[in-house]
């Protein structure tokens, strides 16, 4: 790949190999997003589907030489957010400018903006990532975001 450095190719091959269950340089396309996220990328589910990922196991297989151009393209994609981008967005809800926001506003944001979560997904994210609310219903959003980014 002309636009991937040797180190990028090496990292991509390693991440790909983790999901190559039988050592044949082939992964199930349902794991495309997992491989990209293992490479510190943050594509949306819609992007993954557009790039050839599937929702069900066994629908499609993907070879390493098919994956490398996808990795290269996804690496150049500027639409994906990073921690700092998401932090800036959550700061909009920080009325007291003290690093906290209402837990209810966070739930509302997850359910209504961008690539929306359903109620069950939102509950799972909150359970796994959100610190307990204080007496006034506020949570620190930076720790939430750090935990969330690790899950992605």
TrEMBL record:
<dbReference type="InterPro" id="IPR050230">
    <property type="entry name" value="CALM/Myosin/TropC-like"/>
</dbReference>
<keyword id="KW-0514">Muscle protein</keyword>
<dbReference type="GO" id="GO:0005859">
    <property type="term" value="C:muscle myosin complex"/>
</dbReference>
<keyword id="KW-0106">Calcium</keyword>
<protein>
    <recommendedName>
        <fullName>Myosin light chain alkali</fullName>
    </recommendedName>
</protein>
<keyword id="KW-0518">Myosin</keyword>
<comment type="subunit">
    <text>Myosin is a hexamer of 2 heavy chains and 4 light chains.</text>
</comment>
<dbReference type="InterPro" id="IPR011992">
    <property type="entry name" value="EF-hand-dom_pair"/>
</dbReference>
<keyword id="KW-0505">Motor protein</keyword>
<dbReference type="GO" id="GO:0005509">
    <property type="term" value="F:calcium ion binding"/>
</dbReference>
<feature type="domain" description="EF-hand">
    <location>
        <begin position="7"/>
        <end position="42"/>
    </location>
</feature>
<dbReference type="InterPro" id="IPR002048">
    <property type="entry name" value="EF_hand_dom"/>
</dbReference>
<keyword id="KW-0677">Repeat</keyword>
<dbReference type="InterPro" id="IPR018247">
    <property type="entry name" value="EF_Hand_1_Ca_BS"/>
</dbReference>
């Amino acid at each position: 790949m002309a636009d991937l450095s040797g180190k990028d190719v090496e990292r991509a091959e390693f991440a790909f190999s983790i999901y190559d269950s039988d050592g044949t340089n082939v992964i199930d396309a349902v794991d495309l997003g997992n491989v990209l996220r293992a490479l510190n990328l943050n594509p949306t589910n819609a992007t993954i589907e557009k790039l050839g990922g599937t929702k069900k196991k066994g629908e499609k297989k993907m070879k390493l030489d098919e994956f490398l151009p996808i990795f290269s393209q996804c690496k150049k994609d500027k639409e994906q957010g990073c921690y700092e981008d998401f932090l800036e967005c959550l700061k909009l809800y920080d009325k007291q400018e003290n690093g906290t926001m209402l837990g209810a506003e966070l739930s509302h944001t997850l359910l209504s903006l961008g690539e929306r979560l359903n109620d069950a997904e939102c509950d799972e994210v909150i359970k796994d990532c959100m610190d307990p609310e204080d007496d006034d219903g506020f949570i620190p959003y930076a720790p939430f975001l750090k935990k969330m980014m690790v899950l992605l």
